Amino acid sequence: MQSSDAGKRKLLSILSHGSIFISLSLVGIAIPVAISVLSEDSVVKANAKEAINFHFNVWFWGAIVGGIYGVLSFISFGLLGLLLWPVLVLGFLLHWGLSIWAIAHCLSDANQPFRYPFIFRLV
Description:
elongated; mainly alpha
């Protein structure tokens, strides 16, 4: 593989995994979807699909934890919601930590797609 192809592979893989930082908008998932459709590189496609699956997981678990937090806060006038702050912080750190790990992996080994641990894969 030529160095320009390796650089392109790194860039597209990093864009796919880095798009999770804007995951609350539909633009966040549109980036890896577009990369998956437009790229012909199998490693880039694999990284884009993994990023799409990670988006779905972040949204799914965010909805569950956010829903529980909202219900507990509503029922107890905010008192029980305070108990979930460590869970919210842990989820946030896990979300960002796994994304940074994926980007670091793509920077260090552009020829191997990254696989997030402990996520369900729909795509």
